[in-house]
Amino acid sequence: MKLTRREFIRGFLAVGGSVLLTSAPLRLLAQDGRSGRSTAWVPAYEKLEQAGQLAERIERAYALFENCRCCPRQCGVDRLAGERGFCRAPARVMVYSAHPHFGEEIPLVGTGGSGTIFFSNCNLRCVFCQNWPISLEGRGSAMEDAELAEMMLKLQQIGCANINLVTPTHVMPNILKATRIALKRGLHLPLVYNTSGYERVEIVRLLDGIVDIYLPDFKYTDPEKAAMYSSGAADYPQMAKQGIAEMHRQVGGLQVSGDGVARRGLIIRHLVMPNRVAGTREFVRWVADSLGRSTYVNIMAQYHVDYHAYNYPEIARGITVEEFLEAIEWAQEYGLTNLDEKSLSLWKYYRK
To answer: What helix, strand, coil percent values describe the chain, rounded to 5?
Structure first.
C-alpha cells in the first residue's frame, strides 16, 4: 500500500496534533496487520445490508440534515444549505485524525489497536474538555464520505481491531454512508460508537442493526451540574439514561472473541470529577438497577483541569486518590461485577 503525503498527514496524526515525520511505522503495521475476514462473525451493518435495509437507513439519516435534529439540541438548521447549528459542524464530515489507539479499554485494543477516527466539533461543548482544539475549535479537514470510507479501510488494512468513531453524533449520517461504501470494498470490522452520551433515543434507534459496540460516556446525574459544565444541557442525565438503555437493548452486554477482543455490546465510561460533581454513586446505582450488574463499566480517573475549567472553582483541581477510591467502592457496593480491568488495577494500587 502506497500513501500520498496528504493521505498520511491527514489520516495518521499523533495524539495532540503533532505530525508523525516518517511513514515507516505505518508501513510496518501494514505488513504485519491482519485484515482477513472472519467466517464466524459478521458485523451488524453487513447483516443489515444483506437484508436490504442499510440504504434506507442512510436516506433517513441524511434527511435529518435538512432540519438538523441529530442530537437533543435539535437546532433545526439546514446543514445541506450551509447553515450551522450549536455544534458548528457543516454537512461535510470533518476529521481531525485517524490512527491505531492503544490506550482504550483492553477489549477494544487487541494486538493492532483500536482504529480511532476523531471527528471535529461537538454537540456538548464541556468547559473542561480535554480535546477542546478538536471538539470546540473544530480543527480538522473536511472530506467526502468516500474519503472517510477509505480511512476506515486503511485502519482495517493495518490491523486495527475495530473502527472507533469518536464524537460521532453530529456526523452520524456521513458515518453511515461511509460505512456502506467501505462495506462494499471489504470492511469487516466492528463499529464502535464512541459518544458523549448526549443522544436522542430516536437517533439511537436509527442505529439499531448498524452499530456493533456502543461506548457512551455518562457524565452527570445532576441536571444542574450538566447545565453548568456542558453548555446548558440540563436534560443530559435524562437523555443519557434513555439513550444508553436503548443501546443496551440493542447490543446487550459486552461479547468478546476467543482472543478477548470485543465484537458486540455496551461499555459505559464514567469520569470521576472533583467534589462528586459527576454523581458517581447515583450513576452506579442506576446501572445496577436498570441495566444489570454485569454491565461493563469503566470508572475513569484521568480528570484534569483543562480548557475553561479553571474558571469554575468546584472543578478547578484534579481528583484526589480518596475520590477515586470511593467511586470504585460505590460500584462494588451496588454489585457491579464487570468493572474495567485497568481501573481496578489502579484502585488496588492506591489501596495499598
So the answer is: 45, 15, 45
Is residue 185 classed as helix, strand or coil in its secondary structure? Answer: coil
Backbone dihedral region of 314: left (phi > 0), alpha (psi from -120 to 50 degrees) or beta?
A: alpha
Q: Regarding beta strands 93-101 and 114-119, do their DSSP bridges make them parallel or antiparallel, or are they unpaired?
A: antiparallel
Q: Which residue has the cell 433517513?
A: 60
Q: Choose among 225, 228, 233: nearest CA to 200.
A: 233
Question: Which residues, including other chains, have CB under 8 Å from residue 25's CB and lie 6 or more apart?
Answer: none
Class of domain 40-351: alpha beta
- Per-residue pLDDT of 250-273, as tens digits, reads 999 999 999 999 999 999 999 999
Q: What is the C-alpha to C-alpha distance for residues 124 and 141, in angstroms, rounded to an integer?
A: 21
Q: What letters, b where the CB count within 10 A reaches 16 and e where it falls short, cover 158-175?
A: bbbbbbbbbbbbbbbbbb
Name 238's Cβ contacts closer than 8 Å, sequence gap at least 6: 223
In tens, the pLDDT along 136-147 reads 888 999 999 999
**How far is residue 60 from each of residues 172, 183, 195, 207, 224, measured CA to CA in Å?**
11, 19, 20, 11, 34
The residue ranges of every structural domain in the chain are 40-351
CA-nearest of 321, 300, 306 to 104 is 300
Give the integer Cα–Cα distance in Å for 56 and 160: 29
Q: What is the value of pTM for the model shown?
A: 0.88
| Tens digits of residue pLDDT in 77-102 | 999 999 998 889 999 999 999 999 99
Look at the block and give the residue holding cell 464514567: 270
How many CB atoms are closer than 10 A to CB 299?
Answer: 25
